[in-house]
Write a structure and sequence with these properties.
The chain contains five helices and 26 strands. It is mostly beta strands. It folds into two domains: 266 residues, no CATH class; 134 residues, Sandwich (Immunoglobulin-like). The strands form seven sheets. Strands 1, 6, 8, 10, 14 and 15 form a six-stranded antiparallel beta sheet that branches. Strands 2-3-18-7 form a four-stranded antiparallel beta sheet, with no helix packed on it. The chain has a four-stranded antiparallel beta sheet with strand order 19-21-24-23, with no helix packed on it. InterPro entries: Cu-Rt/internalin_Ig-like (IPR014755), DUF1996 (IPR018535), SbsA_Ig (IPR032812).
Length: 445
């Protein structure tokens, strides 16, 4: 006799109505579901469980097991600096800013019939859901700690993985089709901050917007974070299911805690968030590519933080952009910066010279991996040696050998707006916001 899979035992029994539930944070694949229908202009991250589950909680003392996601660190005393220095398993197929998200998120461990269920790939969205004026949104405070609870946030349920056809409801489904292969949730944090709590009081420093506006007690509007957790049913369990996946109060899904909740410590680089409000509108305007610009930026890019550090920039380059009067074949490529630069950040990954003329789009097509500086369609970059002056304001690229005769060249200084993981930095470690690309032509002997 084939056994029936018991889907939501302790979850439905312990939680009751969704309005009384605290929220959970593990993450799902990232098509925009029907509940969030309409043009999506936020950016998104795809993250995985980052390490084994353990008894830890960086916000509140706890005795139950949590399963962390995102940042490759999970300790009771972890700081914002720890998150920024740790790695992250967040990634994204459309090359958005996912790799800059070192946030740590955790939720109670979930088991079925005593077996820990592996988290599926999860989607996390940053946008302006729930607010009427995205122009006044502020970046997160550094290292902000957030708790989604029964008092603040949303929880909705659906059978199967998230896609545009899923209909989310307020309560867990009592049964799901066998081919749904799991259960999905929509979880949303409050988008209003009290301006005070960034640490251990993560349960009270957030509130939800009311009719699109933040209440006076929590007047600081921050990006809306929405997660889509997905719990896939193990394949070997599905093999033993005949018919629908039914819920039961006798067995099935079990939580390490007695209710579902979500916790998050923000590890996003504030400069990245601010740059997304400045650089992307300037480069793409109304034609910003989907997923590349948060929709909490205004049209002029004026939504900046007074605490945001100045990003370094390029004052001049020699040969200059468009030089066609016969650049010397023995010439070096020299760049003057607006401030002193971090010498070790200027290397063959961040300062590159190609034979040929390439545009930004050709160097950084959508399929270019984030761990690769460029994806030029022709030959690889020329080998060279780079030097930086004592003040750090001048960088010199010295090609290994003479440049080719009567040839067009493309020089590239890497910034972070193309969503790879390479960028030149100033002495304080601030990344240059945008790639600096220019072209010149050598003369004939």
């Amino acid at each position: 006799m084939r056994k029936t899979f018991l889907l939501f035992a302790s979850v439905a029994a312990a939680l009751g109505l969704a309005s009384t539930m605290a929220v959970l944070a593990v993450w799902l694949a990232y098509p925009t579901p029907a509940l969030a229908a309409g043009k999506f202009e936020g950016f998104r991250a795809a993250c995985y469980a980052s390490m084994p589950a353990k008894v830890a909680d960086p916000i509140r003392h706890t005795h139950h097991v949590h399963e962390p996601s995102g940042a490759l660190i999970f300790e009771d005393d972890q700081t914002y600096a720890d998150l920024r220095n740790a790695g992250s398993n967040c990634q994204n197929e459309d090359r958005t800013e996912a790799m800059h998200d070192h946030s740590s998120s955790w939720s109670p461990q979930l088991k079925w019939d005593g077996v820990l269920l592996d988290q599926g790939r999860g989607g996390k969205y940053y946008n302006s859901a729930g607010v009427s004026d995205p122009r006044i949104t502020e970046p997160f405070p550094l290292g902000m700690k957030m708790v989604a609870s029964e008092a603040v946030g949303k929880v909705k349920w659906a059978c199967g993985a998230v896609d545009d056809s899923r209909e989310f409801t307020e309560h867990p489904p009592r049964s799901c089709p066998r081919d749904s292969a799991g259960i999905s949730l929509l979880i949303r944090f409050g988008q209003c901050w009290d301006g005070k709590g960034t640490g251990s009081d993560g349960a009270h420093n957030l509130a939800e917007a009311v009719r699109g506006k933040c209440p006076a007690s929590h007047k600081h509007q921050i990006p809306t974070v929405t997660w889509y957790p997905y719990y896939p049913i193990p394949a070997d369990v599905l093999d033993d299911i005949d018919g629908r996946v039914e819920s039961s109060t006798d067995n099935g899904w079990v939580l390490a805690d007695d209710f579902m909740h979500a916790d998050m410590q923000v590890g996003f680089d504030t400069t990245t968030l601010v740059r997304q409000c400045i650089v992307q509108p300037a480069r793409f305007g109304d034609n910003s590519r989907r997923g590349m610009r948060p929709d909490y930026c205004d049209a002029t890019g004026g939504n900046t933080s007074p605490d945001a550090p100045e990003a370094p920039g390029v004052l001049s380059a020699n040969p200059a952009d468009g030089a066609t009067t016969g650049v010397d074949r023995d010439a070096s490529v020299t760049v003057m910066f607006t401030e002193g630069m971090l010498g070790r950040s200027i290397n063959d990954d961040t300062f590159r010279l190609y034979a040929g003329t390439y545009t930004d789009e050709e160097l950084n097509p959508p399929g270019c991996p984030p761990d690769q500086p460029d994806c030029a369609p022709g030959a690889p970059p020329l080998p060279f040696g780079a030097t930086v002056t004592g003040s750090g304001k001048k960088a010199i690229l010295n090609p290994d050998g003479r440049l080719a005769e009567a040839t067009n060249y493309t020089a590239v200084l890497e910034g972070t707006d193309t969503f790879d993981t390479f960028a030149v930095k100033d002495a304080a470690g601030n990344e240059m916001a945008a790639d600096h690309i220019w072209h010149f032509e050598t003369g004939a002997d």
